[in-house]
Structures
1.
Amino acid sequence: MEPTNVALKSIIEALIFAADEPVTLKVLDAIFNETVGDGQPLRVPVEEIRNAIAALNEEYNQQRRAYRIIQVGGGFQFATRPEYAEWVGKLYKEKGRRKLSHSALETLAIISYRQPVTKPEVEAIRGVNADYVLHTLLERGLVTITGRASTVGRPLLYGTTKEFLKHFGINDLSDLPKPRELEEIMAEHNLETDRQVLEVADSDGGSESGDRPVSPTEAANEPSTLEVSPEGLLRPPSPTKSEQADPPDNEKLSHPEGLRPREGEEGETAT
């Protein structure tokens, strides 16, 4: 079975569009020579595949499309026209500006709250080398060199830029959350985590021994009068061997050591 010229172009267009990497003529030839629903291969010569791709590009030119099919790396793929390179570059620049790694965010937080700050100070706080992340932040225009410190070696000082303010949607550095506000946010987060842990424990029916569930905050702050069981529950500490061996206090008082009556002497009076 041989497809019509229109159908062939549409099939090739769909295959190249859907591919994650350039599609080679060998791959296209193998696809067209596989059996289809009725058990017959399409039998499309390689030259017809080339002609179909050329015809597609001609249509794109006539319709003034912003893309075309190019041959790269031994295969075919869609690409935008060179005259739109500037606009496409703006798109990828915007995407790169919005995406920041966790280490970049950590470094930005240190610089924004402690600026001007040196690289050794940043590394002392984070505990890792900061060369690469600082270079990345400088390239993106989020931080800048503000001068040199007066300490030994006169290391460079870093601070944030106007681009940093625009990136995070704030007008001034004074709009950054205060340390006290950050502590409140973290406290609220911990309380919410504790509540969720207790709700899950309640839904499970608790423990037959009377132990109650332990929240993350309690586990960290609970005094030593309680211990955590292997199941993650708070319970009174187990008695020590000395506590198990000692008799009750009332027994000690009623029968002091060496004064316990011998058998047959209870109730006797002195003569």
2.
Amino acid sequence: MKSNGFEEMVAVQLNTRSWPGQAKLSAEDLGLQDDEVPEIFRLGNKRLYPDEWRQVFGQLGNRARNYLNDNSYPFVMEYVRAIPKRNLARVMERLEELKAEYLAKAEEFVERYEAIKDEWRAKYPDIWHRLAPHYPTCSQLRRKFDFFWTVFEIKGAEVQEGSAPEIIAAYDQARTELQERYQEMVEEAVVYLRKKVVETVQNLSSRLKDGRIVRNDTLESVRRVEDWFKDLNIFGDTKVEDALTQLRGALNGTDYEDLKDNEALKQQLAGLADQVAAAAGKLDDVSAISGNYKRFIDLS
């Protein structure tokens, strides 16, 4: 079968769920009749537990999504990421750790649920009778929390032998559209990788040129971005990778103390950082990179 170009990748969709703990606000909750609420107003929600808990689950969920985003590329479907197959085991291992942390916090919330309700009842005794019916039982509450992901290979639809001509035509069209989306995805992935490289090396270069302090964490950010780029660069973007390798080589063994009074070294590193930024910021070769990658896949 002809390749679709996605053979070195898998798609990952991450989902986190928590109890929103909200109920629709009514006019009666505000001591009004329905016709007393002006039409320009839209009533919101009443909250059933403190925002601090929502923030906890939001932060844990965002941590997981940020980790996945940092180790993947944008995909053609919203809320789905693509990662190299070679990195899948490592990414899954980290997601398992984040899942355990998320569900442990959910279990803590369930264990404290009755106390949280009691605090809310004491804080809002006058309207408690309007809040109480919206609380789930503990067993129902536990099922409202989850952390899971789906991994799937990226393949076009395959038509069965002997299908009607119109079905074959529809599948052929779907495959063509997949190829177009694939081309876009690879180009977006290359730009995504390069953009982060540019941001990192320009920060280093500007600090060196402006005479600002270059701390060890700035130097380490360049080392990290080189590792990150090489890890995700399955597209053969050799110009940027080679330029990064050259900069990393000059940085090896260098720290804040080495740079502090060494103008020649500052100029050398700033020049190398500018070379990386120039290579990564030159986007007119992105289509050629995606095309070369596709041809490589087809011939493998």
